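Students often ask why we bother encoding 3D structure as a string. The short answer is that it lets us treat folding as translation between two languages. Here is a chain of 304 residues written in the first language.
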Amino acid sequence: MAAPAGASGSPPGRLKDAPAGRIGERRSRLETRRIARARRQSRRRATVLILLLVAVGLVGADILRRANSTPTTFPRPPASPAATAAGTAAIDAGAASGRSSSAAPSAAGPVAGSTYPATGPGTWTYASGHGPVLGTAGTLRRFRVAVEDDMGQNAATFATRVEKILGDPRGWTASRQLRLQRVPKGSAADFTIYLATPGTSERMCAVNGIHTQRYTSCRAPGQVIINVARYLESVPGYGAPLVDYQTYSINHEVGHELGYGHEACPGPGLPAPVMQQQTLGLSGCVANGWPFLDGRRYAGPPIP
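And here it is in the second language, the structure alphabet:
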């Protein structure tokens, strides 16, 4: 006779279910461990990725910093005296016609034999005597011209160049609301135009919170500071004679002294406004150093 169900102790179903339960628990523990391991690995991978991104960002920032840093010397072969004379003649011809001379661009280059130190003593030689009154009507504003010592530039020569630019019929006095006159050191003046070494110009600009990296010129209250490196070398890709860049740099910084802000390129192929930051790029415009073209004030969209 068969033994009754359960006679051996436990019901038959429990003999099968108990091992299955233990196996299920073991599998659950293994799955939990696997998930925990996966999460730890995921966190490690995320940490490594973040560290890599930070490292790449730091390297990229260093590359940009190095790319944007400017050498304090700019060795280039000097332009021939004939090329410099041709550029000056172009300004004279443009003044006679009342139009910008930058319509036919050519490569920019330094003046003949241009050399200068990276920094100077911070002392100055001022152009002597009084210059002519520039302009025919409007408020008279007086200015001095100073050249830093020991950098091989002549104060009288630079003053003559400045007066030629500021007195041009395409210059700021064309508004008939302004006249300008150069005066000597010791005379009352509204502002001074300085020609300075890269190091000195950087220090002068930095005092007023402007950091030029020894590359650009700047304007501070009562001070128009022209970096001699830019004045003698222009900038790569300017696409116009050196005299055009010199005209632009002086008119641009004097424009700031007169209260004008920065302007943008109005459109590809158009003349760049003189208050555009042409040293940093033309943005599709054509180089231009004059605030008035064809007898009218030429401007672009204001930059806030």
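Translate back mentally: The helical segments are 12-68, 81-97, 155-166, 198-207, 228-233, 242-257. Keep this in mind for the problem set.
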